[in-house]
Write a structure and sequence with these properties.
The protein is an alpha/beta fold and 600 residues long. Helix content is 64%, strand content 11%. The strands form two sheets. The chain has a six-stranded mixed beta sheet with strand order 6-7-8-3-9-10, sandwiched between helices. Strands 2-1-4-5 form a four-stranded antiparallel beta sheet, covered by helices on one side.
Length: 600
């Protein structure tokens, strides 16, 4: 089996790609296509030779059948009289069988296509879910977005085109085989002419394949630029840079459409020159067959009919292969993307984390990215239900430290211990299920308040009670109950229908609904006005002692009541203690003075 896979991968890379996704199902489709072609060929074979046999006006009709003369003999042995009614019934029988097989072939192709696309999407979704955060922050967001949406549709088109091309290829094989059997000389001439035609077509297909890959690359770039334009719309609009950025988008769009135009021109060439070339080959072969090999017109017409069907099938095969190659770049991209997700898969331990009981310990923890040292030999212990604040200048390593504690990043050196167990040995998702995370930009989905808080749990009575309790803890219950639809109120895209403070409270409610041990807040109030910030601060103070709370805050007033404050400087702990203790430290004192609030 491994030897077969190696041969397929080396010589039939696209076939191997589909085989890797579908397994032996791919051969079911191939077998059904083969049977459709065979039935079609037999049905076609019945027409001319059998109708000649019942043509009483031509006593030499049977002599014009060449190597197909075995057909009337076969039916005589079956005891079937070769009259017109029998002949027509035989023809009807073969084409009926062909129709039934074609239905099953089309049905199975549709089933396998949906199976294939579903599997691709699932692989992408699961792969991205398991993707390392460290890898993700360096990934091309535009490429991820485009691969999940547009590229999947192109892969679907590639799949459909590839197997339609294979089906037509089977038809070509059946018709040519029968043509060779009935009239070898004529068949050889047509095949030689067809091969010469295919060489010309192959050159166009190679060019098409290169352009297809270029379209995929350009599409990634365009998607990335478009996402950033939407994300940074306010900045671009307010600074007048939006038109300059639009120019960049238009240039990328023009580049993409120029490539698509070239693909269209190649498709037009393929569609216009193929048929005249084919007719020229056929006519030349007839002249040679009649004048030099003295063959009768009857057998030539029969063989020509077979070749006509073969050439139509060949045209269909080439058209579908051309369509396939116009999407083949997406297969290469999908393969590379899947490989990237596999290589970037997060490794995790096996021990399940059920609940937090004692403390988190960081022992000699350091973190570096390439040559840049971000965290240096951090030693820190956080007790259960303690409120810790981490402060420091921008670039001091605050967010990186939280990312290490939450398991998003693995320390380059040192250990993170949860109740004495190394985080590297713990199944990190089971630990992260016990984490609540609130960021500066509140995560609000375009859905109801209930679904935002419960994360699409079923609205059972128990879940409704949990939902309302979480709202009360987050001090947002009264607001929700005043809404016309209460918990079923739609919040809009990114919570456009509510204020920044309400977004933060709903985010907090979501984390509390999860029944977490930890609450991490990364600059959760820095984008709010002073009054709303105070409300959130009071809310955090009410939660104090019920959860292990770790806060990153630029505004020091937010963390004045923290049990301990950790002052970071260039990735190291400069000082630690309560607000009153730290205010004696010159660096922290300066930070307090710069923010100009009363620390008494």
């Amino acid at each position: 089996m491994n030897a077969i896979k190696k041969i397929l991968k080396k010589y039939f890379q696209y076939f191997y790609y589909f085989y890797a996704q579908l397994g032996n199902k791919i051969f079911i489709s191939f077998f059904l296509s083969l049977m459709v072609g065979i039935m079609d060929g037999f049905g076609l074979a019945m027409f001319i030779p059998l109708l000649q046999m019942v043509d009483t006006s031509n006593p030499n009709a049977g002599n014009n059948m060449g190597n197909m003369a075995f057909l009337p003999e076969f039916f005589k042995k079956m005891g079937l009289p070769l009259n017109l009614l029998v002949v027509l019934c035989i023809i009807l029988f073969f084409f009926s069988i062909k129709g039934i097989l074609k239905y099953f072939e089309g049905y199975m192709r549709a089933v396998f296509e949906q199976y294939f696309i579903r599997k691709i999407r699932m692989q992408n979704i699961i792969g991205l879910s398991n993707f390392s955060f460290n890898k993700f922050i360096n990934a091309d967001v535009g490429r991820i977005q485009n691969t999940f949406s547009g590229e999947v549709e192109k892969v679907k088109q590639a799949y459909r085109s590839y197997f339609m091309a294979l089906q037509y290829g089977v038809f070509v094989l059946v018709y040519i085989s029968m043509a060779f059997f009935s009239n070898p000389n004529f068949a050889v001439m047509v095949v030689i002419g067809g091969a010469a035609t295919s060489l010309f077509i192959q050159q166009l297909k190679t060019r098409t394949k290169k352009l297809s890959h270029k379209i995929t690359v350009d599409s990634h770039e365009f998607q990335g630029l478009l996402i950033q334009k939407v994300s940074f719309f306010k900045y671009l609009k307010s600074t007048g840079l939006i038109h300059k950025y639009a120019k960049k988008l238009i240039e990328t769009n023009d580049q993409m459409h120029n490539t698509q135009k070239k693909l269209g021109v190649l498709a037009a060439i393929l569609g216009s020159v193929r048929e005249p070339i084919v007719i020229f080959v056929v006519l030349l072969s007839i002249i040679i067959e009649v004048n030099y090999f003295h063959q009768t017109i009857g057998i030539i017409i029969f063989t020509l009919l077979l070749f006509y069907r073969a050439l139509i099938s060949l045209t269909g095969m080439q058209n579908f292969f051309n369509l396939f190659f116009s999407n083949a770049g997406s297969l290469q991209n999908m393969t590379a993307f899947n490989q990237e997700l596999k290589e970037g898969k997060e490794t995790t331990g096996t021990k399940a984390f059920s609940s937090f009981e004692q403390q988190v310990e960081l022992k000699d923890v350091s973190f570096s990215y390439e040559e840049h040292h971000i965290i240096n030999n951090i030693n820190l212990s956080i007790r259960k239900n303690e409120t810790i604040a981490i402060v420091g200048e921008s670039g001091s390593g605050k967010t990186t430290l939280i990312n290490i504690i939450t398991g998003l990043l693995k320390p380059t050196k040192g250990k993170v211990l949860l109740d004495g167990v190394d985080l590297a040995d713990i199944n990190v998702p089971t630990f992260q299920n016990r984490i609540g995370y609130i960021t500066q930009e509140a995560v609000i989905f375009n859905d109801t308040i209930f679904n935002n808080v419960s994360f699409w749990d079923e609205p059972t009575e128990a879940n409704q009670q949990r939902f309302e309790l979480a709202l009360k803890k987050a001090s947002i219950y009264d607001f929700v109950m005043k809404q016309p639809l209460k918990g079923n109120e739609i919040l809009g895209s990114n919570g456009i229908n509510i204020s920044g403070g309400q977004k933060q409270r709903i985010s907090i409610a979501r984390e509390l609904y999860k029944q977490v041990d930890f609450l991490f807040m990364d600059e959760a109030t820095s984008a709010l006005d002073s009054e709303t910030e105070k409300d959130i601060k009071d809310n955090i103070d009410r939660l104090k002692g019920s959860y292990t709370i770790i806060i990153i805050a630029h505004r020091l007033s937010t963390i004045k009541n923290a049990d301990r404050i950790i002052l970071l400087n260039k990735g190291s702990i400069l000082a630690a203690g309560s607000f009153e203790q730290l205010v004696q430290h010159p660096v922290f004192e300066k930070m307090v003075q710069l923010q100009g609030f009363d620390n008494n």
